[in-house]
Amino acid sequence: MTAAGLDVSVVIPCHAAAGTVGPLLDALRAQDLSPERYEVIVVDPGADGTHRLLQGIAAGWSAPPELLVVRGPLRDGPAAKRNMGVSLARGRVLAFTDSDCVPEPGWLAQGLAAVDRGVQVVQGAVIPPEGSRRHPLSHEIHVMSDVGLHETSNMFYERALFDRLGGFTTRYFRRFGAPFGEDVELGWRARRAGASYAFEPRSVVRHPVGAPSLRRRLHEQWLARAFPQLVRDVPELREALMFRRWFLTPRSAAAACAVLGLALTRRAPVAGALALPYSRALLRELRRAEGGPAALGGLLAANLVSDMALLVALACGSLRARCLVI
Q1: Measuring CA to CA, which residue among 76, 18, 70, 25 is closest to residue 43?
Q2: How far apart are CA 107 and CA 59, in angstroms?
Q3: Per residue in 10-50, pLDDT tens?
Q4: How far apart are CA 185 and CA 238, in angstroms?
Q5: Which 3 state secondary structure label does DSSP give 245?
Q6: ∠19-23-29 over CA atoms, to 5°?
Q7: What 8-state DSSP symbol labels residue 129?
Q8: How do residues 207-225 score in pLDDT, each as one tens digit?
Q9: Contacts by residues 285-290 (CB-CB < 8 Å, ≥ 24 positions apart)
């Protein structure tokens, strides 16, 4: 049931977010939408100092909007936390973002306006904070159009639709031990059920660019072993997201061709030409990078290790899921 006059419930899953959740909540209080029209629900497992920080913020919070901080499940990742938050939500529209994001002031108003035009699933833009400096080994989320991933950094669902669909699945987290794919799967399950979708570029969330880290990049590349299972479950991704239907990205396609070309070079020297697209991609990245020869050499080595790790992960995932993704 929705409360009279309450249009939006913002649902935020938290985990080890003590350093980022404060700016997020400040941004939510600064929304253009009238504060009487929305609520904020934060679900945190209480496994670190984040929950104490949230309780302190809630104690000094002068509503509206109302802030509800709840201790949520430690297992099953952000999908379970979002589902728990929705079970407590009173709004007719659900707005999802993450604990390291900072919404622009017009975020809720623009997303709600799109729903009020009759759209059941609305995705907004995700961009870096102003002045961010990107590094090839940085983690970032940049969403400027519909590519089929339905990132919950910035998503709106009609509440009635979400309830009919049964919420986010936790099976990917249980299988792979990390947050992956539940937002993609729900978005396509909604669209497959006939739900209307729209991308609203005026509904903007800022997502930070992470510090360069080869360790984190390799962790992300290894998690890509889950993509073949996701593609098996959501075959629409072959057309919406993948390169030439079989490759995860143009970069993975170039890397795979380079490996094939080098493997065939002894028998057919001309096969070495297959490595040219990948070599050009590496050179373009090095030209954009800063630093002396040692730094550029380290970056080159890191990229080679990262790209090969991705191919190994995709090969393992493809065999396990019996669904080829390169």
Answers
A1: 70
A2: 25
A3: 999 998 899 999 999 999 999 999 999 999 999 999 888 88
A4: 14
A5: coil
A6: 145
A7: P
A8: 999 998 999 999 999 999 9
A9: 285/136, 289/135, 289/136
Residue 49: other Cβ atoms inside 10 A: 12
Closest Cα partner for 158 from 125, 124, 115?
Answer: 115
SS3 for 57-88 is: HHHCCCCCCEEEEEECCCCCHHHHHHHHHHHH
Enclosing H/E stretch for 310: helix 293-321
- DSSP reduced 3-state for 201: strand
Q: Which two tokens stand for residue 182?
A: 């539940």
Q: Pick the closest to residue 234 from 190, 197, 269, 264 (CA basis).
A: 190
Dihedral angle computed from the Cα positions of residues 62, 90, 44 and 158, in that order, rounded to the nearest 10 degrees: -120
Output the pLDDT for position 266.
83
Domains of the chain listed by start with CATH number: 8-211 (3.90.550.10), 213-326 (no CATH)
* Reported pTM: 0.93
- Measured CA to CA, the distance from residue 70 to residue 58 in angstroms comes to 11
Q: What average pLDDT is seen over the chain?
A: 94
